[in-house]
Amino acid sequence: MSMKFPLNLASRPFHKDRPILFASGAVAALMVCSLILLISLALADRRRSADSRRVIARLDRQMASTVAEQARLDALLRRPENAEVLERSLFLNALLYRKGISWTRVFADLEKTLPPNVRLIHIRPQVVSESEVYLEMIVAAQTPAPIFEMLKQLESSEVFGETHVYNFIPPSQSEPLYRCRVSVNYAQKL
Fold first, then answer.
1. Same domain flag for 107 and 67
2. Closest CA to 144 of 163, 167, 125, 110
3. Which domain holds residue 55?
4. Closest by Cα among 74, 69, 71, 100 to 89
5. pLDDT of residue 141
6. Counting Cβ atoms within 10 Å, is residue 88 exposed (0-12), middle (13-18) or buried (19+)?
7. How many structural domains compose the chain?
8. What is the pTM of this model?
9. What confidence tens digit (pLDDT) does each residue in 10-49 have?
10. What is the domain-level CATH number for residue 169?
11. Which residues does residue 141 pair with via DSSP β-bridges, in sequence order?
């Protein structure tokens, strides 16, 4: 039997480097393409952000001029000779806000939430802001349970918000009903 030994007499042995070099070149080309893509995206983002900065700067200038104009007009209105006009203007604006409350809508919304055995004794709206009305009410019932049910329904309603109970008065000789003074936020657009 003869034995064969692998013997390489070359000074530099043969290696299969061609597939590795080809794969390295392909990865390098892919990385160069992704670098070009990232640079183009960064430049496009810089242009967009520069446009946004210009728009924001323009809006800031407009806002500053509007604030300056408002300050000038406020100073003009606050002069002693214009105080009467300012007071009248504020009074009329408050009246217009109050007039903006739709009583029909208030009572329609209350009708949906009040149980049938709860009486509405007194109601007074107050305008908190342009989109919020605050209702102070006095309600009465034969037993406390319907009043508690009404409070639950007010708080779970989409139209009414946070409810505060100020006092709860039991029946007396002159008043046979349980009375409760309640305030509730009412989301009616003015």
1. no
2. 167
3. 19-77
4. 74
5. 92
6. exposed
7. 2
8. 0.49
9. 666 666 778 888 999 999 999 999 999 999 999 999 988 9
10. 3.30.1360.100
11. 118, 178
